[in-house]
Amino acid sequence: MVQDRTLPVFQADYGKITKEEGLRLYEDMVLGRFFEDKCAEMYYRGKMFGFVHLYNGQEAVSTGVIKAMRPDEDYVCSTYRDHVHALSAGVPPREVMAELFGKATGCSKGRGGSMHMFSAEHGLLGGYAFVAEGIPVATGAAFQTKYRRDALGDASADQVTACFFGDGACNNGQFFECLNMAALWKLPILYVVENNKWAIGMSHERATSQPEIYKKASAFGMAGVEVDGMDVMAVRAAATEAIARARAGEGPTLIEALTYRFRGHSLADPDELRSKTEKETWLARDPIKKLAAYLGEQNLADQEELKAIEQKIQAAIEEAVRFAEQSPEPDPSELYRYIFAEDN
């Protein structure tokens, strides 16, 4: 029996947060939560089709990492659970919702749907349906930054890439191959493992010989840290340190964020395999409620301010749904467009 981890190594540093920063983090997490709740509603109303994997409960990871990066300059690579990563990266909610509706105004022109969000404008390298599929893509993006800086002498090439994936991907060969290359070449990349304890219906502890994923970094001589993925400030602190190292040319970091999804693997999953006690234990650690409580305790925000943010986000999401519903379907005449690169 593997002992459950409840006290991650990397803890939060709340001492430096300002009111502006705190509210920005809160707003981004609320956006992710409310957006996903609306997705569930739209899916069950027949507005979305196929598989839809929601992010409820994991918002602190997306917000903590991506909001520590440079907007529209650094790169983000996602998985099939990609809606909230796209939102944190700055993709407008209306474009994400339209993509989920399969409309031409979506961020992937209606071609990608739930699992394949993409936005070159926002540095979003894509969502990837196959487990570990995005790891080589993100590694390649980090390599081109390194190559432009070192081989081509481009002093402006200091972008950092954040590669998100789940605990199941850490048993995949691409994970090991890419970490090896990244360590050898000191690539500017963060490998962010969102360990939500379950790979569909398989418990993480039963699926791997070394459940403490961050320790695998040592095999490559790479920095590896474990962080409380239900605490946005802890994630932000770990990410900020790793980003600074990467930008300074000191190489990659493997960040294992211990988190939990509050819904089933997808909206087609009845979620009957996880125990009620386990779910309730993690629900009590809701990352949004945790940050809200801290902002109140430190007199950085009162309930009215937080409520105003929630109302603003709810209005934006309702507008996104209207936009998606009113947007046109992709034109059949453009069936073969966007398959290959096009000249601007």
Q: What's a quick, concise take on this entry?
A:
The protein is an alpha/beta fold. It is built from 11 helices and 7 strands. The strands form 2 sheets. The protein has a 5-stranded parallel sheet with strand order 1-2-3-7-6, sandwiched between helices. A two-stranded antiparallel ribbon has the order 4-5.
What characteristics describe this protein?
7 strands; single chain; two-stranded antiparallel ribbon; alpha/beta; 9% strand; Rossmann fold; 344 residues; five-stranded parallel beta sheet
Structural summary, described in words:
The chain has 344 residues and is of the alpha/beta class. The chain has one domain: Thiamin diphosphate (ThDP)-binding fold, Pyr/PP domains (Rossmann fold, 3-Layer(aba) Sandwich), CATH 3.40.50. Helices cover 41% and strands 9% of the residues. The protein has eleven helices and seven strands. The protein has helices at 19-44, 59-66, 83-88, 93-100, 134-150, 173-185, 204-207, 232-247, 276-283, 287-297, 303-326; strands at residues 75-77, 161-166, 189-195, 198-199, 202-203, 223-228, 253-258. The strands form two sheets. It has a five-stranded parallel β-sheet with strand order 1-2-3-7-6, sandwiched between helices. Strands 4-5 form a two-stranded antiparallel sheet. β6 (223-228), α8 and β7 form a beta-alpha-beta unit. α1 (19-44) packs across α2 (59-66). The protein is globular, with a radius of gyration of 19 Å. The model has no long low-confidence stretch (mean pLDDT 94).
